[in-house]
UniProtKB/TrEMBL annotation:
GO terms for cellular component: glutamyl-tRNA(Gln) amidotransferase complex. It catalyses: L-glutamyl-tRNA(Gln) + L-glutamine + ATP + H2O = L-glutaminyl-tRNA(Gln) + L-glutamate + ADP + phosphate + H(+). The active site is at 79 (charge relay system), 154 (charge relay system), 178 (acyl-ester intermediate). The keyword Nucleotide-binding applies. The lineage of its organism: Bacteria, Candidatus Staskawicziibacteriota. Its EC number is 6.3.5.7. The gene is gatA. This is Glutamyl-tRNA(Gln) amidotransferase subunit A. Residues 24-461 form the Amidase domain. It comes from Candidatus Staskawiczbacteria bacterium RIFCSPLOWO2_01_FULL_38_12b. It comes from the Bacteria.
């Protein structure tokens, strides 16, 4: 039996039946990382001693005969923007080189309570700014299906780790598409939860009104197990909401699926369109009703997002001044320290966003850019509110094309921003969405995006697991 092929549920059963131990599974994963990660580059740090310690502790719980949770003893990978006490947390930036997290993010605390095993910290675009993981200050993560191509971003390391069997599941974060896009490119399941359903405490902030942590996994059931372990109200995150996840028994039969007419316009690869339309047809064959809807303001999504996200980023990144955290340059005076540390510590993309953001927030331009973008954000939200009066869920592509070549868009920020065309509107509205592997172009996976209404992760997950059987 190949241990690295097993899902969370299979591992849990295997632990119960004493077929293998968590230490054995953990060692199999550490071995796999040693074997394959040189060519993939999913991990920035492998936390081997932590993992083995946690695996031993999990085995004690398992062999004690007491009840143990689904994630107990199951090895996972964590995006390097999420704090794990005592481990590095670079957020993919040189400015946080050697920064060691002084506490656990709430999601990590929750995973640890369940007995999780943490294999390491995964690569990302610097401060999660990007769509290919090429903006990391450290390395480029390659797509396990074709190593000449990108893994998607910004949670490229987390997606590639699962796809390359270097972790059972992982945590990523999604601000404008960063869970769904790499999930789609790497052929794994990725869930962007409703804004407020998962605590952001201990996630290095990019754009606080958009950032959300979520699971990436081998299948829908695993993603659901992880989501159930990490969601919930947290007193350390005032935007987290108190709500109860309940199993949904929604069925494909009679399900009303909205398909936005604006989402199949020019720019989409015809092969992607074919896969998404065939996925929709399969849902229809299973009894779903397909309803054409309109999301007319989505066309402003990218423009609106690339004002709001940099504005928030410019404020969030102000704390990295060379004094309080990580990388610091010496200079004759305090201003010099700031300028030198920030100038050398930040890469090109964060600098670009800091400049865009501070410009859009400056007194002469605030009304024209930031305020206008906030108004457009309301219109985008309203589009979805209207749509969900008519349909249960919305289907769309995750990306207009499959994984592109390493280097293809790296020097063209605008074309990199356009990769987000199908993912940002969801974030501006704050609703949940999942990427489900729906087919392949050659060897490259393609994800279907299933979008739900606020706090309807349960519906999305239920529909996704029914579709998973059909694809
Ligand atoms: N590609 C988008 C950006 O660069 C989204 C990133 C994300 O979701 N973290 O901002």
């Amino acid at each position: 039996m190949e241990l690295t092929n097993l899902t969370i549920t299979q591992l849990h059963q295997g632990f119960k039946d004493k077929k293998f131990t968590s230490v054995e599974v953990t060692k199999a994963y550490l071995e796999q990382i040693k074997k394959t990660d040189k060519s993939i580059g999913a991990y920035l740090a492998v936390t081997e001693s932590l993992a083995l310690k946690q695996a031993e502790a999990a085995d004690k719980i398992i062999t004690s005969g007491k009840h143990f949770s689904m994630l107990c003893g199951v090895p996972c990978a964590i995006k390097d923007a999420i704090l794990v006490d005592g481990e590095i947390a670079t957020a993919g930036s040189k400015i946080l080189e050697n920064y060691v997290a002084p506490y656990d993010a709430t999601v990590i605390k929750k995973l640890k309570t369940q007995g999780a095993v943490i294999l390491g910290k995964t690569n990302l675009d610097e401060f999660a700014m990007g769509a290919s993981t090429e903006n990391s200050a450290y390395q480029v993560t390659k797509n396990p299906h074709d190593t000449t191509r990108v893994a998607g971003g910004s949670s490229g390391g987390s997606a590639a780790a699962v796809a390359a069997k270097e972790a059972v599941y992982s945590l990523g974060s999604d601000t404008g598409g960063s869970i769904r896009l790499p999930a789609s490119f790497c052929g794994v399941v990725g869930l962007n939860p409703t804004y407020g359903s998962v605590s952001r405490y201990g996630l290095i902030a990019f754009a606080s009104s958009l950032d959300q942590i979520g699971p990436m996994a081998k299948n829908v059931e695993d993603a659901k197990i992880v989501f159930e372990a990490i969601y919930g109200k947290d007193q350390n995150d005032a935007t987290s909401k108190n709500y109860q996840f309940e199993e949904s028994n929604i069925n494909l039969k009679g399900l009303k699926i909205g398909v936005p007419k604006e989402y199949f316009s020019e720019g989409i690869d015809p092969e992607i369109e074919k896969i998404i339309k065939s996925a929709i047809q399969k849902a229809k064959d299973a009894g779903a009703k397909i309803i054409e809807i309109s999301l007319p303001n989505t066309q402003y999504g990218v423009a609106c997002y690339y004002i709001i996200a940099p504005c928030e980023a410019s404020a969030n990144l102000a704390r990295f001044d060379g004094i309080k955290y990580g990388f610091s340059e010496t200079a004759d005076n305090l201003l010099g320290v700031y300028l030198q540390s920030r100038g050398r510590g930040f890469g090109a993309e964060p600098k670009r966003r800091i400049m865009l953001g501070t410009y859009a927030l400056s007194s002469g331009y605030y009304d024209a850019y930031y305020k206008k973008a906030q108004q457009v954000r309301e219109l985008i939200k309203e589009d979805f509110t209207q749509a969900f009066k008519k349909v249960d869920v919305i289907f769309s592509p995750v990306s207009p094309f499959a994984a592109f070549k390493v280097g293809e868009k790296a020097n063209d920020p605008l074309s990199m921003y356009l990769v987000d065309v199908y993912t940002v509107a969801v974030k501006l509205a704050g609703i949940p969405a999942l990427s489900l592997p729906a087919g392949k172009i050659g060897k490259l996976p393609v994800g279907l995006q299933i979008i739900g209404n606020y706090f309807e992760e349960n519906k999305i997950l239920s529909i996704a697991s029914q579709l998973e059987q059909l694809f």
